[in-house]
Amino acid sequence: MEPDRIYGHHPVREALRGRREVLEVWCTARAGTHFDWLPDSAMVVRGDRLDELAGSPDHQGVVASVAPYPYADAAELLAADRPLLVALDEVTDPHNLGAVARVAEAAGADGLLITRRRSATVTAAVCRASAGAVEHLRIAQVENLADTVIGARRPGLWSYAAVADGGTPPPAIDLSDGTLFVLGAEGRGVRPRVQKACDGSVTIPMRGRVESLNVSTAAAVLLYEAVRQRG
Predict the structure, then answer these.
(1) How many CA atoms lie within 13 A of 142 on its CB side?
(2) I need a labelling partner for 78 at 20 to 30 A (CA). Which of 43, 57, 63, 192 fits?
(3) Which residues pair with 25 in a beta bridge?
């Protein structure tokens, strides 16, 4: 497979600290003197060359060539002891995927499941939106999310679909055991078959006038309630 290119301060730094191989690093002279974490092998090039390498001017003076993203095994994530997981049901916006990955990694979640089709994948844009969190968070692709949720049912792992109305408020659910939160794309939400596959549904109470939260904000509310209950 062809190498990927990522760009930006946080994505490149976290890739150097993460689990996938970094093949080459390019930087401007200014970045080379400012960022002390850059490897000695980093090649100094002009800014317009970095624009070309990154395919974007938003590289902050740093671009890297990296091995293809190492997706995790979904069955392994689901089989862990008391896992804290998030699944995204056909979320196609790369910025939303990156933001959810950043929240999940910050909360100490054990992994993130995404659908293989009709879903954003881990690209340079997702790496940047996650501030490099994708380099540490284990992300797995699944063919059929509903079947995956059904197949994962076991004592000690409970799945909850995030819905706009009719679900149980997060503090009223015992989230101290293994938990899988399933969130859908904004507008459509979790698909009916996926929601039916879950053990229950959860609704974040809305006190203001807006009707819904961004998917990454919703993920943060749910994950940190689970973290709070786990102590």
Answers:
(1) 25
(2) 192
(3) 64
Place of tokens 């993460």: 18
Q: What is the 3-state secondary structure (H, E, C) of 95-148?
A: HHHHHHHHHHHHHCCCEEEEECCCCCCCCHHHHHHCCCHHHCCCEEEECCHHHH
50 contacts 76 by C-beta, under 8 angstroms? no
Inter-residue contact 7 to 52 (CB < 8 Å): no
- Count Cβ neighbours within 10 Å for each residue of 117-131 and write b for 16 or more, e otherwise: eebbebbbbbbbbbb
Count how many domains the chain has.
2
The verdict on 170 and 129 lying in the same domain is yes
Whether the CB-CB separation of 130 and 102 falls below 8 Å is answered with yes
Q: Determine the structural domain holding residue 150 and report its residue range.
A: 74-230
pTM: 0.94
Choose the final residue of a domain: 31, 66, 101: 66
Distance CA 70, CA 132 (A): 14
Please state whether 130 falls in left (phi above 0), alpha (psi between -120 and 50) or beta: alpha
Q: Nearest-CA neighbor of 12 among 90, 64, 57?
A: 64
Task: Looking at the structure, tell me whether residues 34 and 142 fall in a common domain.
Answer: no
As beta bridge partners, residue 164 has none
pLDDT in tens, 142-195: 999 999 999 999 999 999 999 989 999 999 999 999 999 999 987 789 999 999
Q: Give yes or no: residues 85 and 162 share one domain.
A: yes
